[in-house]
Automatic annotation (TrEMBL):
Organism from which the protein derives: Undibacterium umbellatum
Residues annotated as transmembrane: 28-45, 51-71, 91-111, 146-168, 209-239
Protein name: Transmembrane protein
Keyword terms, alphabetized: Membrane, Transmembrane, Transmembrane helix
Length: 260
């Protein structure tokens, strides 16, 4: 059921993400902007709005994964596809995944502060008081060690969540079982994932020089171009997550399709 993938596959996944995106870029971007619009609307809800975006993230993710499957099968992508997860018989498990993601973030934040003497809390309070800081000021106060430790603490949770959504939606797994399989699938193919994330990190760095070029021409054009490139990269990254699933667990068949 679960295959171990070699390191080279990490770069292959990135390339496959670009291939999928090139098939129907405007339809994918439209789906993304619809998602962003709904997310911004949720943020208007006092207090709960911030948590609702995380809570509903796994449900909306089903729509994006299904969109990637449609791309592979040369099917048309419609805005309604974004709400596929809400029609799934496994919507409760998907919402449970959202709750666990929120809990994982709280635990990571709490544990990091416990070890680092509230370094993250102090930084966030200082940032809230002073507002936006320039690069020099930010470098002086940024708790680099605390942030790195926070990332390390969250990695096991990220591994458990990586495949949980498609495993729930397409393999009909329970929430805990999906997280178990997800964690060990990523662990067994850690070399491929290391290459995958390093590749995306390197590609994202290339955006900055391009932005600087446009900023040198006109600051308004630069900001618009940087924002547009960030949106496109996000969508391509999401497209590339689909082959990470199909390489390890196989392509969802018609029975799996009916599950969503």
């Amino acid at each position: 059921m679960m295959k171990v993938i070699n390191a080279q596959s990490g770069w292959t996944w990135v390339k496959q993400g670009f291939v999928l995106f090139r098939k129907r870029p405007m339809e994918l971007l439209s789906l993304f902007f619809l998602w962003m619009m709904l997310t911004q609307l949720l943020r208007f809800i006092p207090v709960a709005g911030q948590f609702l975006t995380l809570f509903l993230f796994p449900v909306f993710s089903v729509g994006f994964m299904q969109a990637c499957r449609y791309l592979e099968n040369e099917q048309k992508i419609t805005p309604g596809l974004l709400f596929t997860g809400f029609q799934s018989p496994h919507v409760v498990a998907l919402l449970g995944s959202g709750l666990l993601r929120i809990a994982a973030l709280f635990f990571t934040y709490w544990f990091s502060n416990l070890i680092n003497d509230e370094a993250l809390s102090e930084f966030m309070k200082a940032a809230a008081k002073t507002g936006p800081m320039d690069a020099g000021s930010l470098e002086k106060v940024l708790p680099v060690k605390a942030i790195l430790l926070t990332v390390l603490i969250y990695i096991p949770f990220a591994m458990a969540f990586w495949y949980s959504v498609p495993l729930i939606a397409w393999q009909r797994m329970t929430l805990i079982k999906s997280m178990f399989y997800s964690f060990f699938a990523v662990l067994h193919s850690w070399k491929a994932f290391l290459v995958y994330f390093l590749a995306w990190y390197g590609l994202s760095i290339l955006v900055s020089p391009l932005a600087i070029i446009f900023l040198g021409i006109d600051i308004n054009i630069g900001v618009v171009m940087l924002t547009a490139m960030s949106f496109i990269i996000f969508v391509i990254v999401y497209c590339s997550s689909y082959p990470t699933y199909t390489d390890v667990f196989g392509k969802p068949d018609e029975d799996n399709q009916a599950a969503v």
